[in-house]
Design goal:
This protein has 249 residues and is an alpha/beta fold. It has 7 helices and 6 strands. Strands 3-4-2-1-5-6 form a 6-stranded parallel sheet, sandwiched between helices. Helix 1 packs across helix 2, helix 2 packs parallel to helix 3 and helix 3 packs parallel to helix 4. Bound molecules: 3-methylbut-3-enyl trihydrogen diphosphate (2 copies) and magnesium ion. The site of one 3-methylbut-3-enyl trihydrogen diphosphate (IPE) has 11 residues, from strand 2.
Length: 249
């Protein structure tokens, strides 16, 4: 049985509800370094990373952030040792199976983005189930980027559009930004307002390249497994200090 929280944490008093980001994206980095600091194997960091993600998802829901997108596995992460890749694939599958009922009860709409067809078949099955069983939920849009690469996403969109042109269904003059966006994995999700990267690296690592055009960037030294409510609060407070100009004055 799922125990629903009876006491939802209110938005901290120093944050303005009207100026919250609608969509927060996170590069959950530093699991390995966190584990190393604790004298643990890297995989323990990934395990703790799942707990951190659950905490931030709950927090977004409590505080009224409408969409959360988390980078779980990049197209480049296949280059890691096979044991780590295998562990991650199994972890994703196990977590999905374990958490789906609670996600449904919490009204979470789950979506996966990335080249999903290249994932292990049993993981694909869990992914499809989680997406279809939560597709009408409206509590929060929760997107997990798995086998995701921004360049790969753009290339597959180009290929789909080129195919339509070749078939005579589309004229090149009809290709504009709006049409292009409809061919991205994120077609139904607004662009991120805030990108959080944990563990200090000042880079995007092939995440949401198109969608990030005007996201505010927030980078913290905190490793992902330690990224808790109070760290998220700090990120939101920093975001609310920003002046988003979108190229205007
Ligand atoms: C991020 O943590 C999780 C994944 C990429 C799956 P890392 O595993 O990259 O941790 P560090 O960067 O090595 O510390
Ligand atoms: C980015 O982290 C990918 C994920 C968090 C899933 P990486 O650890 O793979 O990025 P780099 O190698 O530091 O750029
Ligand atoms: Mg890393």
């Amino acid at each position: 049985m799922t125990v629903k929280p009876t006491l939802l944490q209110d938005l901290p008093a120093d944050l303005e509800r009207e100026r919250l980001p609608r969509h927060v994206a996170v590069i959950m980095d530093g699991n390995g370094r966190w584990a190393q600091q604790q004298g643990l194997p890297r995989i323990m960091g990934h395990r703790r990373g799942v707990d951190a993600l659950k905490g931030i998802l709950r927090c977004c829901k409590d505080w009224g952030v409408q969409a959360l997108t988390a980078y779980a596995f990049s197209t480049e992460n296949w280059g890691r040792p096979i044991e780590e890749v295998d562990f991650l694939m199994t972890l994703f599958e196990r977590v999905l199976r374990r958490e789906l009922q609670e996600m449904k009860a919490e009204d979470v709409q789950i979506r996966f983005v990335g080249n999903l067809a290249a994932l292990p078949r049993s993981l694909q099955t869990e992914i499809e189930r989680s997406m279809s069983e939560t597709r009408y939920n409206q509590g929060i849009q929760f997107t997990i980027a798995t086998n995701y690469g921004g360049r790969q996403e753009i290339v597959q969109a180009c290929r789909a559009i080129a195919t339509q042109v070749k078939q005579g269904l589309l004229d090149p003059d009809q290709i504009d930004e709006a049409l292009f966006e409809r061919h991205l994995y994120t077609a139904e999700i607004s662009d991120p307002d805030l990108l959080i990267r944990t563990s200090g690296e000042m880079r995007i690592s092939n995440f949401l390249l198109w969608q990030m055009a005007y996201a505010e960037l927030y980078i913290t030294e905190t490793h992902w497994p330690d990224f808790d409510r109070s760290a998220f609060h700090q990120a939101l407070a920093a975001y609310q200090q920003r002046h988003r100009r979108f190229g205007k004055v």
